[in-house]
Every structure is written in structure tokens, then in C-alpha cells.
Amino acid sequence: MQDNLYNLAFERSILSSIVFEPQQFDELSVALREDDFYLPAHQDIFKVMTQLLQKDHPIDEEFIKKELIKIKKFDEQVMLEILSANPISNTKAYVEEIKDKSLKRHLLTLTTEIKRVTVEEELPSAEVIDIVEKKLYDITQDNQTSDFKDSPKMTFDTMEYIKEMKARGNNILVGVDTGYHELNKMTTGFGKGDLVIIAARPAMGKTSFILNTVNSLIMQGKGVAFFSLEMPAEQLMLRLLSIQTSIPLQKLRVGDMNDDQWGSLNGAIDKMNDAKLYVDDHGSININQLRSKLRKLKNKHPEIEIAVIDYLQIMSGVGNQDRHLQVSEMSRGLKMLARELNMPIVALSQLNRGLESRNDKRPMLSDIRESGSIEQDADIILFVYRDDVYLYKEEKEREKAAKADGKEFISEYVEKEEEDAEIIIGKQRNGPTGHVKLVFQKKLTRFVDAQPFAKGVETVYENVDTRSANINVANDMVSMPPL
């Protein structure tokens, strides 16, 4: 039984190889973790080796001994056994064996944990499943960490981060590309572990807005998980194809296209066949189910860099709690999941109807439905706002009133091919708030940057297709408010 859970001879050989050939430690420190070693004394030695590497000190017998004595963990017998072990040049097989036995020990620990939460604590089955899935995901992803990070570890990681940022030069992006140049400048992208809320009233275009982000990412070869609770996957694909080809969405829906448009569509289809886009369009899902699905998908496809939920208020609650408590559980669960998977999670959200009674209808944080917990948990909150939506609505109300009074109605509203739009940054935990100007291309349900920006010697728009792509299809404009 014990032979199946550890191999001390292999552990000694690995540590001996590091002492006699310290240059191997750079590679081994990535492949192995402190708790992959079974013997506590071996764990201490590996930890000290890591600290010496961070301090840029020699990883040799004398420095290891000095550090171990300092923390009162030096065992002369263990050190002699390591120094007398045969160092090896090809460590791959040894590392794999140590990792395999470490995994088995973690799984054995998990079985004990399952018994504890199931029998001793008598937790509900849904909660037990969530605990087990999270632990299993952590094990398979090698995410077992200590309870605390000490100062040397934090300062080392921070310096590595600063060096990485310096190496990027003037690149404004730190997180995941939003797909919009000016928004990237304001946010530096969506950060790993961030919960991002995109909120708007119906017809403002929150789904269209995030689909432009999704399209930008998949065109860069990045992976995206999309939970579509409101529309089937095929409708999402139609919107993405419209964004990519500049073919009006209504034409795609009915297949009314000329030869050039068919050719453009076929080219876009070929690109989408290679896209790393994964859509779950089951209309009802709760936070426990979403966690389980996303963990499994991320484990199978580690290239996924962002997850999108469209939209938060459609998610099912767990149990018979009041709705505001259910939404609190959802938002907190999404934030914790974003940190666990180390990637941004974007959740779309509805706004309260009350804002429409104000003169200035630009959204505020208090306008988010069940806003208390969402506002608290979110790292970034973006509002999508288009003034033309309200101008059009007011025009229709005036027309209705005129007809009711038997008066002639002369419309003053001019329907535009392109409408001004605003992205209002209502909250940003690690950056400024403010406004970003965009343009909404109505028939394509596509947002683009309001101003071109320079890339090298050329001046181009952020999106793959420029705004001028609409000129040839101006007569095809169909007024369809986006979701």
C-alpha cells in the first residue's frame, strides 16, 4: 500500500541531482511542487531550494544546510542520504513517478474529505458535489497551495509581474482583450480572476457588445466559453457571422445574399470551424451546474481565457430563498469561480425600469437589479447606453398620442445607419471610471470604436471590418433592436 503512495529513493535522486547539477532546478521547479514529496524533510529541502533560487543564491549543500538550520529544519541523516544517492541526468521519468504518487495521495485525502462532508457534517448533496468537484479540479490542475503566501514568495511573484509588464513595452493590455481600443486603454483589459458585469436596459445591445469582444478573441485564436440562457447557439453564430462579414443580420437570417456575400460567408464559416468557441445554450442553469460545467470544460480545454453568461437574472436559483439572496449567491459564486479558474467571467445583467423615469437615463450602479451583491462582488461594471433608443421610443409615443387625438403626425426622428453609443465604466476596482465612445452599426448589431487609432504607419479601426464596409449595403438597413 505505502509503496503505491511514495518512493523515497526517487525523491532522494531528484534532490541529489539538483544539488550536483543546480542548473536543472529551473525546469524541475516548474514541474514539481513542495507537496509532491512525501517525506516532510524532503519537502523542507525543496522549499529551501526554491527560496535560494528566488534570492539568486547558489543551490548547493552549504547554502541549503544554512537555510535549514535557520528555520530549525536541518536533518543531517536525511542530507547524507540525499548526497549519497546517485544523481540522474534524465529526470523526466523520475518526476512523472513522483507526480503520479503525489496525485494518488491527494485522491486518498479527497476520499476522507468526502466522508467528512457527507457523513459527519451532513451537508446537502448538491453542496457535497460542488466541494468534491472543486477539490478534484484543484488536484488535476495542480492547484494545491498552502494556506498563506509568505513575503518572499509575494515579492518574487510581484517582481516577475513587473518585469513581464516592462517586457511588453507600451502594450496597454494586461488582461484579456475587450475588442475595443479605447476601452482597453481605460481598463487594460479584463483581468484574470475578475468578475465583469455588463448591464443595460433591453434593446441597448449588451449581447451585441460582448459578442464583438468574443469575436475579437476567437479571431486571435483564444478560447471562449459562452453560456447563452436567452437565445440558441445558432442565433449567436448568425450574429458572429454578421460581425465578421458585414452582411446585415436580416439577410443572413433569410439567406438573401448576392454571390460576393455568399463567398464572404463561406470564408467566415471556414474560420469559425477552427474557432475555439464553446456554447451552452440550455435555457435553465443554476450556479452549481454552471460551476461544474465550466470546471470540466476548462480542464478539457485549458486554452479558454474567458467565460460569458447571458444573462445573470435568467439563471435559476438554488433552494427556496428570496430572489435577492439567490442573486447574491450567484454573483458571489461567479466571483469565486473566476478566481479559482484564474480567468475573467463576464455576466450580463438587466437594469431596473425606474431609470427611464429620469431626465438623464444614463445608468448608475443603483439601477442594477438586485444591485447590492452584484455591485459588491464585481471588479468591473460596464453600462451600455444608446440615446437613440430613447429618442425612437419617444417618437413612437408622440405618434401614438397624435393618432389618439386625431391629429396629423409628422415624424422628426431620422433613423440612422450608425448611432452614437457610450460604454459607461460605473465601477473599476483597479482603475478609473468614465465613459468610452463607440459607434453602433444597427443592421450588423456591431459596435466599433468611435475613432480610428494608429497601428504602425496605418490608421485602422479596432474591429476586423471597418465602418466603411457598411456603405455598399446602406439600402439594406433593417431596424432590429438587439438583445
UniProtKB/TrEMBL annotation:
Cellular component GO terms, alphabetical: cytosol; primosome complex
EC number(s) stated in the UniProt entry for this protein: 5.6.2.3
Keywords annotated in UniProt: ATP-binding, DNA replication, DNA-binding, Helicase, Hydrolase, Isomerase, Nucleotide-binding, Primosome
Coiled-coil ranges (or none): none
Sequence similarity: Belongs to the helicase family. DnaB subfamily.
One GO-annotated biological process of the protein: DNA replication, synthesis of primer
Protein name: Replicative DNA helicase
Catalytic activity: ATP + H2O = ADP + phosphate + H(+)
Physiological role: The main replicative DNA helicase, it participates in initiation and elongation during chromosome replication. Travels ahead of the DNA replisome, separating dsDNA into templates for DNA synthesis. A processive ATP-dependent 5'-3' DNA helicase it has DNA-dependent ATPase activity.
Family annotation (CDD domains): DnaB_C (cd00984)
InterPro entries, per database record: DNA_heli_DnaB-like_N_sf, DNA_helicase_DnaB, DNA_helicase_DnaB-like_C, DNA_helicase_DnaB-like_N, DNA_helicase_N/primase_C, P-loop_NTPase
Domain SF4 helicase: 169-454
The organism's place on the tree of life at top rank: Bacteria
GO MF, one example: hydrolase activity
Organism: Candidatus Sulfurimonas marisnigri
